[in-house]
What we know:
Elements: E1 3-7, H1 61-66, E2 70-74, H2 83-87, E3 93-96, H3 106-110, E4 117-120, H4 130-136, E5 139-142, H5 148-163, H6 166-174, H7 180-184, E6 194-198, H8 202-211, E7 217-221, H9 228-234, E8 236-239, H10 242-248, E9 251-254, H11 268-271, E10 278-282, H12 291-300, E11 303-308, H13 339-358, E12 367-370, E13 373-374, H14 376-381
Parallel strand pairs: 1-2, 1-3, 3-4, 4-5, 6-7, 6-9, 7-8, 9-10, 10-11
Antiparallel strand pairs: 5-12, 12-13
Helix pairs in contact: 5-8
The structure holds NADPH dihydro-nicotinamide-adenine-dinucleotide phosphate.
Amino acid sequence: MAKIVCVLYDDPVTGYPKTYARDDLPHLERYPDGQTLPTPRYIDFVPGTLLGSVSGELGLRKYLEGNGHQLVVTSSKDGANSVLDRELHDAEIVISQPFWPAYMTAERIARAPKLKMIVTAGIGSDHTDLQAAMERGITVAEVTYCNSNSVAEHVLMMILGLVRNYIPSYNWVMKGGWNIADCVARSYDLEGMQVGTVAAGRIGLRVLRLLKPFGVGLHYMDRHRLPESVEQELNLTHHTNLASLSKVCDVVTLNCPLHPETEHMINADTLKGFKRGAYLINTARGKLCDRDAIAAALESGQLAGYAGDVWFPQPAPADHPWRSMPHHGMTPHISGTSLSAQARYAAGTREILECYFEGRPIRNEYLIVQKGELAGVGAHSYSAGNATKGSEEAARYKKQ
Ligand code: NDP
């Protein structure tokens, strides 16, 4: 029987919810490209409840214990005395979410001799040293598409929030003010601006589609070109490199995975190629950007705003400069963990576990690494290597 260690974020400070703001979730059957939503044989949770925190347990306990397995659920993941480190020695499967990632470094993998599978309950497996996983023959899987549209909605919210200066204006209301000039001195219309996405995969393409009605010029940069019919439908301009895209765009949004090729793609040098006063939105991964270069670009005015929900490491320590830099619209990593998204990735995680334990193949679209090499979606979107360096910094986070 297997031991499964599941690392989840803490429950709300007010305790695990007893009631919810809404009674149901819309019923979806397929994602925009036709891929079906997760299809586990059964689920033991109520969609729309908080599944991603420790007490929610991704709805897995009944299923796993009912089949004789051991489930350990914890939020303690960083530092030498973490529960994760204590439990790793005989774990067969580690599950975590990118919002509160169990950084599966080569050292941790080496300390887990029985480890066979690492599951990302969500999308983005850069918190796992994929190179080390390949070398050990560990399967890495994620729930592709489960929250791509959730993130795209967050991107749209953040673009509008920055361009229209929403958060500072809201803050004036909260302070009892009516300071219209203070609010509008940095407020613009999005209409007519040029907006570009770095990567037009599931999230990037959705962002482009959501933006079309705003009357903006749409641009994308990707290694592979979108079908001509999509380029025509959205009137897209394709760029082969970041410099060409950033030179013409008022708003740039990052939607590519983090892997050694994309790490720090936005740095002091590449930022010089942006239009002065550009807005940058990053809901993909914090390490795509050089932390200090972003803060400096906001100070100097090279960037008019930066927003996103991804940091490095996670959780970000109290003195992380992105908490205090000017003109930012940061949230903690939440865009892909709405209650709607949680229902999908909890079901997807269950589907992956059912396949694993029943000896059925895991969907190709969920595979990142298998049999010692990049596989499935991973072979398309990732490159080999390790992007977890520096993750030990997460241990500096103190709960507020
Ligand atoms: P997809 O795999 O659908 O899309 C990724 C795209 O990135 C692909 O089109 C790929 O191109 C492209 N890409 C890869 N490398 C490069 C590169 N060097 N330059 C330009 N484009 C590149 O993934 P999703 O859209 O679903 O998700 C994207 C990322 O967003 C995830 O990897 C994750 O890091 C992040 N994410 C964040 C979430 C959050 O909660 N904030 C939730 C979900 C995802 P090609 O196909 O041509 O190889």
